[in-house]
Design goal:
Rossmann fold; globular; methyltransferase; transferase; nine-stranded mixed beta sheet; disordered N terminus; alpha/beta
Amino acid sequence: MRDDLGRRGQRPVGAITRGTTNPNRLRRVDRWIAGPLAARWRSVADPLVVDLGYGASPVTAVELLARLRTVRPDVEVVGLEIDPARVADALPLAGPGLTFALGGFEVPLPRGRRPVVVRAFNVLRQYDESEVATAWATVRGRLAEGGVLVDGTCDEVGRRSTWVAVDRERGPVSLTLSMRLRGLDRPSDVAERLPKVLIHRNVPGERVHGFLSALDDAWAREAPMAGFGARQRFLATVHRVAEAGWPVLDGPARWRLGEVGVAWDAVAPGG
């Protein structure tokens, strides 16, 4: 099926994932979609969001709808899977604002509708890095004007999570790191959950390695802040890397959550 990547046909575009999922696994990215990203979809005429590749259980699509409805009650979520059995298993949970359908990167939707957000989590990690650009381009071609693909990866319980925001018009615009601060040894521990486009780039000479190293250095230098709690230490850490010139995003309200975004150009592959 990977030979079909980027071409529309009768079969869904993509390959079946392992399907691993757990309740609350995607809470970190959900609260970002409902937070900083909400300006993208809060006022659109058709607030349609796609959970692409939700896995063996539709729980993440159910949770996504509940979280986004705190921002806009009429938001709709469509869960897409390329495994017909997974779609059949999810159908009993369908209801007002929540549907499930067969589909992949081609994002098939009825009546020519286009999503303003597509969340694809733990999907591309099972592909080759060389396939990422084509997958991104395929999804971008299906987004509504101003739409965003959120391509990310997290651990099994959602304590470490990262994602790239891919704009319909501009391509990738940011990388976000989000981690549970309690018990954190160093920020670069999140590196094992980098999106596929970056996970093999965490080596000296690559920009993402430089950013993670800067976070680690700042975290070590802010060790005296640990007495005030991990949140205060991380807040001071991000302030320090911002002062060093890294284009960090979103502000202290997000940093206190163990979350930091950075402009894509600062971490893009290529050294």
